[in-house]
Each structure stands twice: as C-alpha cells, then as structure tokens.
Task: inverse folding
C-alpha cells in the first residue's frame, strides 16, 4: 500500500540525500527529514538547508544527547555490557533511540511510513526495524538499500548529479565513520584488511598514546546505584559528564579498540573504535562493584553479560527479555555507590583506589594478621567437604583400575 507521508532518518550525507530524493520520486508523497543530534559534530543549519533543498517537506532536528547517555549508555554501563570482549556498543546503543524518536516524529506529523539508510549487509537495518516493529507496528517500513535499482556507488553519484544533489569533490575517506557522544567507529575501505594498521590521522577522539602527556593524570568518578554522577567531586548531567571524560581520556590516548566482530547477519567485520570516556566508566564501575556487590549476585549478573550485549548488538533493546534483564540488573546496582580513583598514562587507565559507604570489604576479615572474626582452623572442614567428591572419584577409579 502506497504511503501518504514518510519520515526518513536523515543525516545530510550523500547517501541519505539520495534516499530522500529517491523516496520523493518513487512514492510521490511528502517526506519529512528527521535528524538526531546524539553528540556527533555537525553543522545543523547546513543539514537543515540541504534537507529542504533536496525536497524535504520538513526538516526536524532533535537534541537527544542527554537522553542517549541517561537512558541508553548508562543502563548498558550498569550491565557492564561488552560485545565479544571488546566493543562497548556505541553505535548499537544509538540506533533504538534514533528509531524511537523517528516514530515520535512520524506520529507528530501524521506519517504512516518510516525509512532508514542502512544497507542490507549490516546490523543497523535490524536495529532500526526491530524498534519500529516493537513500538509502532502499524507503520510501513521502507529500506531503500534493499529496494532500489542502484548497483554501486557510480549509480548513486549519477543519480545525485542528475538531481542536483551536491557530490563531495574532495577525496572520499577510505573508510566509513559513525560518531556520537559515546564513541566513534571506523570500518570498511582500507580497514577491510585485518592485517592493515589503522592510519594515525584517522582517529578523532583520542591522541596517539606516543604523543600523550609524559605525566600521568588522576581523576575520581562517583556513582549512585551504578550510575555515574560526578567527576572529581563535581556533579554533572549525564551528557556533560561523558563529554568531560571523553576530553580527559582522549588527551591520554585511552579508549582505542581494534577487533574483528561477528555481525548479526552472519558476516565477520573489522571495526576500529574510540570510546575514551566510556572506557573509564567501565573500569571504574567494575571496580566499585568489586567493593560493594555480593559474590553470588555478581557472578549471576556476570553470566548474563554476553547475552545482554548480544541483545543490544542485535537490536532487541525493546524486547520482553531485555525488560526482564534490565529489571534484574537495576536490582543488583542498589548498593553500587561510591567513588573510584583512576590513573591515566600513555593510552592506559587503571584503578588505584575505591571507597564506598556500602562497601562489603572488611579489613578485619581480609587481614593476614590475627583477628577474632575468622578462625583459620575452620577452613580444614570446609576444604574436606569441598574435596569429598574428588576424593571419592579418585578412590573409585583406583578400584576399577582406571585413570584419574
């Protein structure tokens, strides 16, 4: 069924500008260009002007930075979410928020369809569309990269030139970039060879560790129930706190990751990431948990980290299983309050101190000196009971003449 009005997730770049014009031609209906400001550095006046000049009925730009950090980055932080041991999920966390706000814009403008610029090979198409389905199943979904007739970049450029869409005359970057307040990611082009070292001039958020200051820097991050609230004693909003940590960690070259990951669609992809402030928050948060969380609760939560990270990566932010896991994780964070001191130097960051009014650490128990709370003789029976099944197994194998 032909849509009456479409809201396009629009960046102002070449691809989404072509998509905007293509939608107008194919569906012959108004198209609203929606832009989400999640911390990427853009000339928003220029983006707005380009959207109108390309044919958009309206250009809507929403500042979502605080919501992004508060409602997406920090909940992932509370779960210590890391995908495949390295990726802190910067792009994956942004997509459900963009799609959610896109739906809101569609409802405000009476649109019955939404469109995105994600390709048919990547993860983002899934993240956008699962969010549309979960929050607004009545909306028609349009994915131009899976529908149009263009076969390659030359076709796209020819279409752009035909319709007067500005084509950058500068040399195209030899890789793809996605940026927000949490991270910058790089993939494709010269990075498709996993043996190729990323060029140093590629990085935007961090200096080279070799060029970082020769003197270490200390900082303190404070948390309340697992949520970062202050840096060096200064209380800040979520977005401002993360921006400050990005600046501090970035000048010390902290937060770079280079990995080959498994996309949801089944393709391996090499990604290079900068997550300076997020790296500090993950280190500090984990250190505070070590001080304040019950062992069995921590181990149970830790067993869920790979699954939680997968749900984010695969696009299931708005799913019943995610709701259940987030409720459990929130419960585990009730005592994760306190302050952690970090030391930064030449691309490295490590924890050098932690304190909490809800600490479970008792020096009287941990000490090697004499104490009245723990009788070391009790360990003998504890060890015997723990080893009983091992001893029985060995005796049975010995009777049977088998190996241990």
Result:
């Amino acid at each position: 069924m032909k849509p009456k009005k479409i809201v396009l997730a629009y960046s102002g770049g070449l691809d989404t500008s072509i998509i905007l014009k293509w939608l107008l031609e194919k569906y012959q209906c108004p198209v609203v260009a929606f832009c989400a400001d999640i911390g990427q550095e853009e000339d928003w006046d220029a983006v707005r002007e380009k959207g109108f000049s390309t044919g958009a009925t309206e250009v809507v730009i929403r500042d979502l930075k605080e919501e992004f950090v508060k409602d997406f980055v920090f909940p992932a932080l509370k779960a210590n979410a890391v995908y495949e041991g390295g990726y802190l999920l910067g792009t994956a966390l942004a997509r459900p928020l963009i799609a959610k706000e896109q739906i809101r814009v569609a409802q405000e403008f009476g649109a019955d369809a939404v469109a995105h610029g994600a390709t048919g090979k990547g993860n983002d198409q899934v993240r956008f569309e699962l969010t549309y389905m979960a929050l607004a199943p009545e909306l028609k979904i349009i994915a131009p990269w899976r529908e149009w007739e263009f076969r390659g970049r030359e076709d796209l450029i020819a279409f752009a030139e035909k319709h007067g869409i500005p084509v950058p005359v500068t040399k195209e970057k030899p890789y793809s970039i996605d940026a927000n307040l949490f991270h910058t990611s790089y993939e494709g082009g010269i990075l498709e060879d996993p043996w190729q070292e990323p060029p140093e001039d590629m990085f935007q958020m961090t200096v080279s560790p070799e060029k970082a200051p020769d003197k270490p820097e200390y900082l303190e991050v404070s948390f309340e129930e697992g949520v970062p609230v202050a840096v060096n004693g200064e209380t800040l909003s979520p977005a401002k706190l993360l921006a400050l940590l990005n600046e501090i960690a970035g000048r010390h070259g902290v937060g770079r990751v280079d990995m080959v990951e498994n996309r949801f669609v089944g393709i391996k992809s090499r990604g290079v990431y900068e997550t300076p402030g997020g790296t500090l928050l993950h280190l500090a948060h984990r250190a505070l948990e070590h001080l304040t969380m019950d062992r069995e609760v921590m181990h149970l939560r830790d067993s869920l980290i790979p699954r939680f990270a997968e749900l984010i990566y695969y696009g299931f932010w708005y799913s019943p299983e995610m709701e259940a896991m987030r409720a459990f994780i929130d419960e585990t964070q009730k005592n994760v309050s306190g302050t952690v001191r970090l030391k930064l130097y030449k691309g490295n960051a490590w924890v050098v101190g932690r304190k909490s009014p809800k600490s479970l650490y008792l020096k009287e128990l941990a000490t090697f000196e004499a104490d009245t709370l723990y009788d070391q003789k009790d360990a003998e029976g504890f060890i015997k009971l723990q080893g009983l099944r091992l001893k029985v197994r060995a005796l049975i194998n010995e009777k049977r003449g088998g190996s241990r």
Notes: The chain has twelve helices and 14 strands. The two ends are 69 Å apart (CA to CA). The chain has three domains: 6-75+88-162, 176-293+335-355, 369-400. The chain has a mean pLDDT of 94.
